[in-house]
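Here is an idea for our session: we take a single protein and study its fold together. Which protein we use is up to you, so please pick one and set it down. Once you have written the record down, we can walk along the chain together:
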Amino acid sequence: MNGYWVNSKRVVKSYLATAYKESYCNLKNGTVYFEAPLCKPTFCLTKKKKTTNISKFINNERSLEKTMKTFSAKAGEFERKWYLIDAKGEALGRLASKSAIILRGKHKPIYTPHVDTGDFIVIINAKKIILTGKKLQQKVYYHHSGYPGGLKSIVAEKLQQKDPRELIRLAVKGMLPKNRLGRKMITKLKIYAGDEHPHEAQNPEILDI
């Protein structure tokens, strides 16, 4: 008889239960034969053979099911918002992680890994941000001039006094992809040391962390 042999007890039990419930199975010589209502071939469930060739049946069933296509956003087909964050009294890491999520667009249902779906962020009062513990004295930032012996370092406390905006920018940049997409995302981040910014025309939405 043309059919597919199944050796799995779990598969056998599930098919038998469905067969008896729908009343389309037959019992002959201790072997159960039934025909699935949505598939052409007749199936034979027994333990005599050890092969498990039911891939054709699974593929036929899946083809009949309703499938859903994965949505992929495209540049220019979505709108970008503007958010305003006040960094006064906020921890650097918590602020940076929230900003990175918005810059990447992971807060949106249309998030696509290879497309920049993020929004713009305006951060004010960068000079009033805080670092917990002893990070101001112990955290060191390194950069290299590209020449032999050109390794430079600066402590977080001195960097905050010199340029507090760079402190936030480096923290956010480290949480973005390390490629051209990440370099494009960081351009949507606008940081200002004081409480004023030139983006009133964009009407940014105030965001609480």
